[in-house]
Specification:
It is a single chain. This protein is mostly helical. The chain is elongated, with a radius of gyration of 15 Å. Helix 5 (49-56) crosses helix 6 (60-88). It has helices at 4-7, 10-15, 18-30, 33-44, 49-56, 60-88. The mean pLDDT is 81. The protein contains 6 helices and no strands. The chain has one domain: Arc Repressor Mutant, subunit A.
Length: 94
């Protein structure tokens, strides 16, 4: 489950529509726990990878790997969603 802090984050309320927020929550909840933790700590808590590695008891290389893999996955998921929306609106996908 996504923490209440994430769901109520001011930046989410200001930068995403309700539908986009709901989709983001659904995607984040499906990520493996380690991926969710790295994303939350790094982006919502501004914690450096070295500190995250210490908290999780793994190497910094492992954290960097998790981070890169998670961003690639999120990019594919949200890119696909964006292309679907463009196709539904009659725009040509890039």
């Amino acid at each position: 489950m996504i923490s209440k802090e994430i769901l109520e984050a001011r930046s989410w309320r200001n930068s995403l529509t309700e539908a986009e927020r709901e989709y983001m929550i659904q995607v984040l909840e499906k990520l493996p726990q380690d991926s969710r933790l790295v994303i939350f700590l790094h982006y919502w808590r501004d914690i450096e990878f070295k500190e995250i590695a210490e908290v999780m008891g793994v190497t910094m290389n492992e954290i960097e790997f998790i981070h890169r893999a998670t961003l690639r996955l999120l990019s594919k998921v949200f890119g696909k969603k964006l292309n679907e929306q463009k196709n539904q609106s009659g725009e040509v996908a890039a």
